[in-house]
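INFO worker-7 received task bundle
INFO bundle size: 2
INFO processing item 0
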Amino acid sequence: MPRMTWCAAALAAGILAPLAWAAPPPPAAKRYNVMAGGYYARETQDQEWRLTLVGEIPSLPGAYVVVHDAHGRLIHAGCIPQGKHPPEKPYTVTIKPDGITGDYRIIIIGHQDDMLGLQVPFTDLPQEVYGGGSMSMGHDYTAKPYFRAPEGVTKIKLGAHQGQMQIYDADNKLIADTRKGGGREKYDNTIEFDVTPGMTYRFERQTMYFRSYTPNAFFLAFTPDRWFAPDPKLMEVKWWELVKETPPADAEK
């Protein structure tokens, strides 16, 4: 029996309906390999926007992408076929204006490949961040993303998997270093440090894998202007039930 792809499985389950694909937007000047528990974007005014997927899907069944909002609305559910999707020919979905703005969570299943996975940014919305428990940024150690502490968060604890990490403030002052005063949890070198909500910090690491031990507090962006704190209600949405029970109006062909 031939191997069933994510798309074929979704079609067989009656989840997906035909989708009209838009022409791809111009590629971003710089993209980064990021794997995270969640990718988040904010729509500040009702508009047409694009979900642009660049990179490689190495698994033969392909991958599956879900976009939902903090109120439990399914914005998009669809498949990404196996193969390469270069910046000049990305896999692109257009999300039409719907009269509603807010925060979105993007979840991608089945794309894991530490070196050749999908690259961010995923959207052309003005704000986009990446977070969750465990994360990876590949071996591009020149990538030095930014973060801020959400309201109510005064301490953040991070762990570097068999490696090290440092945190710098807006004045380029080192405020935390796993090599100085840090701890150890299983395979992680850990550090807990004080933060001021709203202030900008820079993150550096000498490890491929890292994680946040402080729930819903650590979200990265590659430019400070794109950072925001996602609505915590996004993490409470049972997105797999949305896909099963509420097919979107526009789904993949």
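INFO item 0 finished
INFO processing item 1
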Amino acid sequence: MTTLPEPGNSSASEGDLQRMSLLEHLEEFRRRIFKSIIAVAVVFVFCWFFVEKITDFLAQPIYKALPEGSRLTFLGITDPFIIYVKVAALVALFLSSPIVLYQVWGFIAPGLYRKERRQAIPFIFFGSLFFIGGGAFAFYVAFPFAVDFLVGMGAAFQPMITVERYFRFLLYVILGLGLMFELPIIIFLLAQMGVVTPRFLIRNFKWAVLLIFIAAAFVTPTPDVVNLLMFALPTIVLYLLGVAAAALVLRSKKKKEPPEE
């Protein structure tokens, strides 16, 4: 990923950047993906020993909403095993997110200047923090609210919820919100690379809101407006946080520019 030196910045030279061919980029991408998969797989093995306790913990929102003594059911003989695999994989992804983000940074770092590459630790720390924070927000706030709403809508019927459908919704929401909470980090990176500016982000705010609502509609487990807003509004706040991060990047770049003669 090769970028051009900034105009008027004498400290940024072509030597600051690593030039790579297309094949080298593809090989680097393959290598980073392989390392990320290995990291997730190692943590997956660890999570597998506790997967039953983790699954029971993740089932608490539905147990609190259902009548006392109710249990999730399954229809296919392989459903429990598949659910355990999905749960262990999701938890492994969250726990290994610092390693995965390190590999992401390692892939994009060659396209940055030497001083910009020093921001690896903040990127990994805040990227992991926002990703895990999004998953926590999904499990402790958004998903219980959605579960209470859905179960309340079916109060006139006998509930018989399958473990496959429940965890499909749960894992979809947790992973979706975890990725949506990465929005400030993505904006920060784009601003660092000069792709976006605070003025550009503010000028296109209405389009960003539209895209956020579309993404929230895919993540939201129900079609009602209340749950849609619960997913979309925090993401809009994160977008504005990303605008603030882009402003800090722009301010930092201006300080590094030499004064005009």
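INFO item 1 finished
INFO post-check item 1: Residues 18-136 form one domain.
INFO post-check item 1: Residues 1-15 have pLDDT under 50 and may be disordered.
INFO worker-7 idle
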